[in-house]
Amino acid sequence: MAASIIDGKQIASAIREEIRAETEALKARGIVPGLAVVLVGDDPASKVYVGNKEKACQAMGFHSEVHRLPAETPQDDLLALIERLNGDPAIHGILVQLPLPKHIDEKAVIDAIRVDKDVDGFHPVSTGNLMIGDDSLLPCTPAGCIELLKRTGIEIAGKHAVVIGRSNIVGKPAAMLLLREHATVTICHSRTANLEEIARQADILVVAIGKPKAIDARYVKPGAVVLDVGVNRLPDGKLAGDVDFESASEVAGWITPVPGGVGPMTITMLLRNTLTAAKRIHGIG
Ligand SMILES: Nc1nc2c(c(=O)[nH]1)N[C@@H](CN(C=O)c1ccc(C(=O)N[C@@H](CCC(=O)O)C(=O)O)cc1)CN2
Q1: Euclidean distance between CA atoms 214 and 164, whole angstroms
Q2: CA–CA separation, 92 and 120 (whole Å)
Q3: How many CA atoms lie within 13 A of 205 on its CB side?
Q4: Distance between CA atoms of 268 and 88, rounded to whole angstroms?
Q5: pTM for the whole thing?
Q6: Which residues of the sequence carry a binding annotation for NADP(+) (predicted)?
Q7: Residue whose CA is closest, atom 21 of ligand 1?
Q8: I need a labelling partner for 22 at 20 to 30 A (CA). Which of 16, 76, 130, 253 fits?
Q9: Is 75 an annotated catalytic residue?
């Protein structure tokens, strides 16, 4: 194996210590950061992620609420809950776990969240702010990717970053954040012609396509940095990324594993966004 591992667990844990120190300082001023997570339905992976978010908040000393609603919850009931949380002074961050059941319009739900409590960074105003470089709460997984690069000492400015995947929650915001860090950015997707050839030009390759082990050594330039955002459950119960780790790590210079790479950063960035939201709502920082 040629590549060095980017250890997301270790980096996430260092950031959590920074968040802990800031949280203690905030609590000394009588402000307890509060996060409300809303889960609709029984998706097994979502249940695990929401449980992990709850545990992370509790471990950080945040106020934590999880609203678990049945799969058949009418959209209006969900919107009414969000409206209540928007006005709740103990809540600084609101997150609706995705995916939602099919009868619920995801956009209507995200639009209903108060922008200054939008700790997922998915609201159209947050997205617009990201585009124009204004200070908004950043989507957690893409923000985690940038932290991994910076804290590993990887230069972003002037590099060619190729993002494979154009989802609103990972691919597009990851591309915007890399651009903000002065990378030259190419976004690829399912209809990109010559994907292999374009990916092989990347100094930084971010893969977020939701297809297990789809990207192997043929797509990686020797020495490139590979960030694997995929978390796919295989039929044998094991987790795999979107990158074929065995193959790609023979060629890459740096690579994130799955599990233990980008994944642990997602909840850490959520904690950081909740802390930031609490400070801003109280006019601090
Ligand atoms: N409202 C949101 N919904 C979803 C988001 C999101 O950011 N906001 N992202 C994903 C799921 N997700 C958080 O919700 C998430 C995914 C993966 C991990 C993680 O820690 N992965 C670990 C492996 C965990 C395991 O064993 O299953 C890793 O990669 O090391 C955390 C959070 C979709 N929905």
Answers
A1: 11
A2: 12
A3: 34
A4: 23
A5: 0.97
A6: 165-167, 231
A7: 263
A8: 130
A9: no
